[in-house]
Amino acid sequence: MAIFYFAMFCLLRSITYVVVDTLYERQPDMSPWQMFFMRSCMGIAIMTLHMNRNVKKETWDSIECRKSGPLVFKTFTGVSTNLIQYSVTKFIPATIISIVANLAPIIVVILAFLILKETVRKFDVLMILLGDLYHHLGGDEAAESGKATPTFPSWILYIMLFFNPFLSAGGTVSMRKMAKFSDSVVSWYLQWGTLICSIALILPLGQGFAIFGNFDIWDWLLAFATGFTSVYSETMRFKALKLHKAAALQKLIPLTTLFQWVFDISIFGIHYSWIQDAGLAYLMLIYILQGLKYAFIDSKKKAKMLAEHDLKKSMLRTTSSARQPP
To answer: Angle 255-263/2-26 helices, nearest 10 degrees?
Structure first.
């Protein structure tokens, strides 16, 4: 189930990009901070309706105070990565941002090994490296030109961008330390953290909330979709990380690129170059190999281990019953 949940996280994250891009096309004057505010409000409303009277039970009672450190850290990193990603996009080409962002799975593997003491398999590392190779060679090959020039030293932006994958990876690892928390905890506090930070940016910048008065019914439906995908993508990722090792799940991250490729072609009519199509075909081959390995190697090993475990339990029962006096 962990693999299914993580695949759903990748799908919902891809849908988030599609919905946000569509909303930006319909409302070009909307700033990223206004989008964050709107998305967080929708996310909080959706979660409140979903949990109903269990809000306190799910988001407060399920948290042990002495174990709240990972939750605070995840909320901080989640909000920070969103703010950094959307602030540097105006000044740094998406190609560079994509390459740096795709370092996160490798960092997750390293942190999972050092902090969580997870066993890292060579195959998982190989799949992550092969997936990352696509982003460096095949994907996102067109770099934008004519980016705006910041009014402050540009090296500040690159430092922020450099720390982004470390923050993202740290947040992923921290979720592994919250296995006993409710599934809704991470999304709930991430929505509130984003809401507070977006207001703290909107008011000093004088952007206001008048933009939302221009929304029609379709814009509000898209706004609802941004909140829905934001909430349940994080929920799916949290459920997956509660069930499976963080390092092993990172090889599924390039699924987001595959889903995005499908949406770009089918919805936006974007045509990729042959290099990018070849790179995506290469990614699909990687996942086919992973599926074959799971079906014919991992599943057989797991079945053999379960059979040996059952045999040992049966032998222990037999030995125990034989030692009992008549």
So the answer is: 40
- Of 241, 230, 287, 301, residue with least CA distance to 111: 241
- How many whole angstroms separate alpha carbon 316 and alpha carbon 278? 55
Structure tokens at 309: 């475990």
Quote the pLDDT of residue 181. 82
pLDDT score, position 310: 60
In 3D, which of 91, 125, 92, 123 has the Cα closest to residue 107? 125
**151 DSSP 8-state letter:** S
Sign of the alpha-carbon torsion through 97, 99, 104, 105:
positive
User: 228 is written with which tokens?
Assistant: 């829905």
Res 142: pLDDT: 45
**323 exposed, middle or buried (CB, 10 Å; 0-12, 13-18, 19+)?**
exposed
What are phi and psi for residue 182, nearest 5 degrees? -65, 150
Please report the sign of the dihedral spanned by the C-alpha atoms of residue 148, residue 154, residue 160, residue 163: positive
| Tokens encoding 290 | 């992973």
CB contact burial 59-85 (16+ within 10 A = b; e otherwise): beebbeeeeeebbebbbbbbbbbbbbb
pLDDT tens, 227-272?
999 899 889 988 888 888 887 777 777 777 777 777 777 776 766 6
42-46, 145-149, 317-321: range with lowest mean pLDDT: 145-149
Q: With 80 as the cut, is the pLDDT of residue 199 above it? A: yes
Q: How far apart are CA 205 and CA 170, in angstroms?
A: 30
Q: Compute CA distances 55 → 46, 144, 228, whole Å.
A: 12, 44, 17
Q: Where do we find the tokens 């997870």?
A: 118
